[in-house]
Amino acid sequence: MGSVDAAKKAAAVKAVDEYVKNNFVLGIGSGSTIVYAVERLAERVKLENLSIVCVPTSFQARQLIIQHNLILSDLERNPKLDCAIDGADEVDAKLTLIKGGGGCLTQEKIVASCAKQLIIVCDFMKDSKALGEKYKKGVPIEVIPMAFVPVQRKIEEDLGGKAELRMAKQKAGPVVTDNGNFILDWIFPEKSYDWESTNTKIKMIPGVVETGLFVNMTHKVFYGMADGSVKEKSV
Ligand SMILES: O=C(CO)[C@H](O)[C@H](O)COP(=O)(O)O
C-alpha cells in the first residue's frame, strides 16, 4: 500500500473508532477513502456486536454496505442520522469542502444535511488554505441534462472561468450521475471567494440540482498523514 492509501486508511479507521457508537444511524459517503471506513465499520460491528443502520450516499456506498453485510436503510425509513462519514476532494481552512470528484455530490449533501455531524476522512493532500490551491478540477455542479448549455453559459458569464461538461472515460458521451443528471466542473478564476454566497448564486440558476460546495456543514476532518499519523481539525 502506498503512502496516500495508508493515509486514507489511517484517517478512516480513526474516524470510525472515535465517532461510531452502538445503535447509530450512519451516513456512508462515497469514494476511495470510504472503502476503508466501511471495512473498519464491518470489523467493529462483528467484534463488538454493534447495531448500526447505514444510509448510503451513492450506488457505490449501497454496494459497499451490502458487500459488508451491514444494515442498509434509506432516508424514508431513517430521515435523521446520528452521523455521516464521507471523503472530500479539498478542505479549506474554514472546513469548506469541494466534493463530487466521484460525481455523488447531491446525495452526499442530502445525507450530510440530515446528519447531526458530518465527519470527513481524507489524506494530507486534500488539506489547503483556500479552495483551488490543491484540487485543480474545479467545483462539480450537478445539472438537469436539457439545461447544461444555459447553465454553463450563465456560470461563465456571471462568475467567470470555465464550466466543463464532465465526459465519461469508458463510454462515448457525458458522465451520468446516480440521479440521471450531468456534471459541470466549474474551473473558477483564481481569487478569494465568499463560498456561501457563491454557492447560493450557482444554486439559483434554473437547471442546477446541487453544487459540490459544502459550506458550514463539516464538524470534523481527519487527515491521514504521510507518516501514518492522523491530524484532526474541527470548527
Ligand atoms: O465527493 C466524493 C464523491 O462524490 C468523494 O468523497 C471525494 O471525491 C473524495 O474521494 P476519495 O476518497 O476517493 O479521495
- Specify the helix fraction band: 25-40%
Report the top-level CATH class of the largest domain: Alpha Beta
- Rough shape? globular
**What fold name goes in the CATH topology slot of the largest domain?**
Rossmann fold
Architecture of the largest domain, according to CATH?
A: 3-Layer(aba) Sandwich
Percent of sequence in beta strands: 15-25%
Number of strands: 14
> What compounds are bound to the protein?
ribulose-5-phosphate
Structurally, the number of domains stands at: 2
Q: In terms of per-residue confidence, which ranges show pLDDT below 50 for 5 or more consecutive residues?
A: none
Distance between the termini: 31 Å
Going by helix content, strand content and strand pairing, the class is alpha/beta
- Rg for CA atoms: 17 Å
How would you spell out the order of helices and strands?
HEHEHEEEEHEEHEEHEEEE
Number of helices: 6
Strand order of the largest sheet: 3-2-1-4-7-13-14
Mean pLDDT: 97
Major β-sheet, in short? 7 strands, mixed
